[in-house]
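WARN  no MSA supplied for this record, continuing single-sequence
INFO  ligand: iron/sulfur cluster
INFO  echoing inputs
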Amino acid sequence: MKIFFDALGCPKALVDAERMHYFLQKESHSFVSLPEEAEAIVINTCGFIEAAKKESIDVILNYIGLKKEKPSLKIILSGCLTERYRKELLANFPEIDSAIGARDLTKIIDAFDHPSKNLLDGGEFKDAHFTDERSLVFSGYHFAYLKIAEGCNRNCTFCAIPLIRGKQRSRPIESIAKEAAFLKDQGVKELIIISEDTISYGLDLYQKKSLIPLLKELLKLKFDWIRILYLFPDEELLNLVYFIKENPSICRYLDMPLQHVSASLLKSMKRPGDPEYYLSLIERIRKEIPEIKIRSSFIIGFSGETEDEQQDLKTFLKKARLDRVGFFEYSREEGTESYSLTKNIGKRVLRKRIKELSAIQETISENNLKKMIGKEIICIYEGIIEEKKSKEYLVFRSEYDAPEVDGVVMVKKPDNLDPDNIDFVKIKITEVIDHHNLGGVEVL
Ligand code: SF4
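INFO  complex generated
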């Protein structure tokens, strides 16, 4: 069949989409770049917070509209939304031909070979889909994500991920290393390690946190860069920082979602910490690697959040001087422990709080970026963008920027340059472009 694949959601879902694409390709299905040309549409949905659920539903409705014009069009759903709401989806959208969930991606083949409405047996989470190879169709120019585990054993009270993805199931180091070798052979330069709770990798499988033994294996493959995402701020983090310090090909970059800093709020989120604990952790990290860049994210508007707690966070941001920060609206999710909490914060107050925090952080991020001016840094090529008056810019990322969430480094495109032969370039930073991006010139 001719398939159009729409991959929504986070990098972990993107890896799932590439696996399903690979399985379907092996079954001799072909892929088209426009939904109008397709005989079947596969939508890998996202479903962990309100905004993501809404986006997935809008996309589904869009293809149902297309099916009205082309009744033979097959619509197949996979991913987190179908794990949580398969019955509701199939009941409300009779146009959907199959829903396969996220616990066994090999079911995507059945969705074509033995089409039936509900292919989600609700059974065990089978990780048969942890294959050595996949289609790198949704990955970046020179980077690819590598998923090292599924699920999570932590019980943050606001989080639906354990409901969707189950308990943590770490992949054996050998299996991960095989897939990494495949990615290396495909020309991937930047390997990005992901899972729900990366710092706890191996605890379920080897009875001890084993991210560092895994990294030792992956370093043997000599990727130019290894980047690590989704790091829970626990005591193991400092061991990882010492290891990063000794291994220059691991990006000097930490993605460490804190979610909040107020001790009382963190307690009701079932997360550790308080402002002093996190400030001292950040200080010790920077003492080990002064140039390291730290990204974090915070949930705003959690049940019962007070103005004092908002103030705690403002004070913390000014002291912590983080490099990159995302602020997310609290999403009250069925099935989570905090769903029953009733002291809900109104949207107007919630958005006012996010606005206040974003204003503080934008100034901090911009001032941190200004410290890069004059520095020469190695950057990886991402592509070309056309700016005002059709001036073309080459877009790069430094080791301090993760794809899709952080900023870029822009360099005016020299006339006689063939972008297909660029990977890493040394760039001298000359300016800060808003609070997010940098501008520079190539150091020849
Ligand atoms: S660690 Fe992350 S994935 Fe796990 S429960 Fe907490 S927020 Fe959810």
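The longest strand covers residues 376-386.
INFO  checksum written, moving to next record
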